UniProtKB/TrEMBL annotation:
One of its GO terms (molecular function) is DNA-binding transcription factor activity. It comes from Flavimaricola marinus. This is Acetate operon repressor. GO terms for biological process: negative regulation of DNA-templated transcription. The gene is iclR. The lineage of its organism: Bacteria, Pseudomonadati, Pseudomonadota, Alphaproteobacteria, Rhodobacterales. Coiled coil: none annotated. Gene3D superfamilies: 3.30.450.40, Winged helix-like DNA-binding domain superfamily/Winged helix DNA-binding domain.
C-alpha cells in the first residue's frame, strides 16, 4: 500500500494541497478562496455564466438583432438586453444603431489577444527579435493593430547607448510608424479606404505623411520592396524599417521592425536592414503557421545580402 500513499502525496503536492496530520481538509490553492474545493455549482455566478453564453453565441453568429439572439439562446429579450448593455459598457460588444445589430467589440479582442500574446505570438517572437537585434545592432520591435493604431507588444533593446525605446503598451498611429505602414500596405483597398476616412493623418514631425496621395504612394512602394520606412515621421532623429507578419489565413496581423537613430540607420543601410527585417518577419510567419495571402506582393523568401 506504500506506493499508493506516494502517488497520493505527489497528487496533493501538485495540487498545492496539504496532508497535515489529522487534517483531511485540503489547503486552498493560490488564486482561490478557502472554501472553493469541489463546489462547482456553489461557486458559479449564474449571471456571469449567462453573459458568457450570450457573448459566445454572438461571436458565432456575427451581427445579430436582439430578438433573434434571445430566441436562439432561449432567453427573454429583456434578460439578453441587460447582458448586452452591461457588456457594451466594457466595450466587449458593440451596437450599430443604423443596422440595429449587435456585434462582438474591441474589448473582447483585447482580452483574447492577451491570451494569444502569452501563448503564441510574443513567446515565439522573442528569439527572433533577439536575433534581429544582434544582427542589425538596433532595437527590434513587435507590434499589432489595436483600435486603428500600432500597439507595441514586445521589444529587444540594442546594446548601444543611444537607442530607440518605446516599451510594450506604447501605441502609435498607423500612418506614422514603420510597423503601421507595413500593415497598411497589406490592407485590401476597401479596408484601407475605411481606415483613412476614420483616422486623420495627424502630423507629428515635418516628415509625417499628412497627404493621402503621398501616403498611398508610400504604401505602394512598401508593397514593392517588402518593407516600410519610417523616416523621422513620428520622432525626429529616429528611423524605422518594418515588415509584416501573416497568419494562417494569409492576413497581415502583426509587424516586426528595427528602430534606431538616423546617425546609424542611414539611407545607405536601408536595403541591408530591410532584407534582415523581411527575413525575421518571414521566420515568425512560419513559426506561427502563417503565409502571405494569395496575390500578396510580399517578396520571396531569400537570405539577407
Amino acid at each position: 500500500m506504500g506506493y499508493i500513499f506516494h502517488i497520493m502525496e505527489a497528487f496533493f503536492k501538485l495540487g498545492n494541497f496539504s496532508m497535515d496530520d489529522g487534517d483531511s481538509t485540503p489547503r486552498r490553492t493560490r488564486g482561490r478562496p478557502r472554501d472553493w474545493h469541489d463546489k462547482t455549482e456553489q461557486n458559479t455566478i449564474k449571471s456571469l455564466d449567462r453573459a458568457m453564453q450570450v457573448l459566445e453565441r454572438l461571436g458565432e453568429l456575427g451581427g445579430t438583432g436582439l430578438s433573434a439572439l434571445a430566441d436562439d439562446l432561449g432567453q427573454s429579450p429583456a434578460t439578453v438586453y441587460r447582458v448586452l448593455v452591461t457588456l457594451e459598457g466594457r466595450g466587449i460588444v458593440e451596437f450599430n444603431s443604423t443596422s440595429q445589430l449587435w456585434n462582438v467589440g474591441a474589448g473582447a479582442f483585447l482580452i483574447g489577444s492577451s491570451f494569444l500574446r502569452r501563448t503564441s505570438l510574443v513567446e515565439r517572437a522573442r528569439p527572433i527579435l533577439r536575433d534581429l537585434m544582434e544582427a542589425t545592432g538596433e532595437t527590434a520591435n513587435l507590434g499589432i493593430v489595436q483600435e486603428g493604431a500600432v500597439l507595441f507588444v514586445s521589444q529587444v533593446e540594442t546594446h548601444a547607448t543611444i537607442r530607440a525605446f518605446f516599451p510594450p503598451g506604447t501605441m502609435s498611429p498607423l500612418h506614422a510608424s514603420g510597423i503601421g505602414k507595413a500593415l497598411l500596405a497589406q490592407m485590401p483597398d476597401e479596408r484601407l479606404t475605411r481606415h483613412l476616412k476614420a483616422h486623420p493623418l495627424t502630423a507629428f514631425t515635418p516628415h509625417t505623411l499628412t497627404q493621402r496621395e503621398a501616403l498611398i504612394a508610400d504604401l505602394a512602394a512598401t508593397r514593392t520592396r517588402g518593407y516600410s520606412i519610417d523616416a523621422e515621421e513620428k520622432t525626429l532623429g529616429m528611423r524605422c524599417i518594418a515588415a509584416p507578419i501573416f497568419d494562417v489565413h494569409g492576413e497581415a496581423v502583426a509587424g516586426l521592425s528595427v528602430s534606431g537613430p538616423t546617425s546609424r540607420v542611414e539611407p545607405s543601410a536601408t536595403p541591408r536592414l530591410g532584407a534582415q527585417v523581411i527575413q525575421a518577419a518571414q521566420a515568425l510567419t512560419r513559426a506561427m503557421g502563417g503565409h502571405a495571402r494569395h496575390g500578396s506582393t510580399a517578396p520571396p523568401e531569400s537570405p539577407p545580402r
